[in-house]
Amino acid sequence: MTQSTAVRSSGQIHDHVAVARDVVKSYGTGDSAVTALRGVSATFVRGQFTAIMGPSGSGKSTFLHCLAGLDTVTSGSVRIGDVEITRLSRTRLTRLRRDRLGFVFQSFNLLPMLTAEENIRLTGRLGGRRADQRWFDTVVDALGLRERLGHRPSELSGGQQQRVAVARALLTRPEVLFADEPTGNLDSAAGAEVLGFLRTAVDEYRQTVIMVTHDPAAAAHADRVLFLADGMIVRELPSPTIDDVAAVMTTVGPSPLERAGRRAED
Ligand SMILES: Nc1ncnc2c1ncn2[C@@H]1O[C@H](COP(=O)(O)OP(=O)(O)OP(=O)(O)O)[C@@H](O)[C@H]1O
């Protein structure tokens, strides 16, 4: 069942699986208030891999968290498929995240006492649903985890742990897979394996992926890169290459906070 919104443009039908409109996010009040997002709008279509980049403090993680319903917005709206998530109760939002979204974080977030297989099956079990065995096998084999299913996280390399986390996130066939620096703790070979699999998930299973990264090589696996600076989207780069991404990053530059920090150090 497709719960996204089909939109026809230029003779093509696009499924808008996530839409942010004028999202503003402020933390704190008064003198200590920080506005992390200043009116961010973006549309994410099914089967597209988007990387979000920008200087430290530009609002990347805040944007990802607002899109994924992990954080509330101060104003503006976020739609996942046909559901306006900024209006949902806490319980319904938790259920929507569990049933319709997948998450991969920099620090793998696996449960240490469970085996790889138990970790992978965990999200589906929490939702009271049994994962389809064929899909479980497809994901496990594509991620090269077959021989590791009985191992606990402490017995796995960082790359293997992150592949378990990716398998867990994909097992429920989420409408969107959100990844926050998924390769941040991995060496470049292990990172490339994880990114290669995310690419395969997009190309072969029409998975939608939204990933925050600092790494131009990681962003080059995406179909497009959105660049944030000072809480706003300032550039969009389609079909990115590593060189293109690195070149835009030099123009996007550090945030005012970083500049202020550097001035203080001078
Ligand atoms: N919980 C919070 N309370 C107060 N300020 C916050 C909070 N979370 C983020 N911020 C501020 O919001 C701004 C954006 O932070 P965010 O973590 O989204 O940036 P980022 O681009 O992901 O940075 P990095 O690349 O360093 O992870 C920063 O100025 C940050 O200090």
Please provide a brief summary of the model.
The protein has 266 residues and is of the alpha/beta class. It has nine helices and eleven strands. Helix 3 (116-126) runs parallel beside helix 5 (158-171), helix 4 (133-142) packs antiparallel against helix 5 (158-171) and helix 5 runs parallel beside helix 6 (188-205).
Structural summary, described in words:
With 266 residues, the chain is α/β, with parallel strands linked by helices. It has helices at residues 60-67, 90-100, 116-126, 133-142, 158-171, 188-205, 216-219, 242-252, 256-265, and strands at residues 5-9, 12-27, 34-45, 49-53, 75-80, 83-84, 101-105, 176-180, 209-212, 224-229, 232-238. It has one domain (16-27, 34-250): Rossmann fold (3-Layer(aba) Sandwich), CATH 3.40.50.300. It contains 9 helices and 11 strands. β2 and β3 (34-45) form a beta hairpin. It is globular, with a radius of gyration of 19 Å. The chain binds adenosine-5'-triphosphate. The site of adenosine-5'-triphosphate has 13 residues, from β3 and α1.
CATH superfamily: P-loop containing nucleotide triphosphate hydrolases
Strand-pairing-aware structural class? alpha/beta
CATH topology: Rossmann fold
Strand order of the largest sheet: 7-8-9-4-10-11
Helix content: 25-40%
**Mean pLDDT over all positions:** 88
Topology (SSEs and partners):
Blueprint lengths: L4 E5 L2 E16 L6 E12 L3 E5 L6 H8 L7 E6 L2 E2 L5 H11 E5 L10 H11 L6 H10 L15 H14 L4 E5 L7 H18 L3 E4 L3 H4 L4 E6 L2 E7 L3 H11 L3 H10 L1
Parallel strand pairs: 4-9, 4-10, 7-8, 8-9
Antiparallel strand pairs: 1-2, 2-3, 2-5, 5-6, 10-11
Helix pairs in contact: 3-5, 4-5, 5-6
Adenosine-5'-triphosphate (ATP) binds next to strand 3 and helix 1.
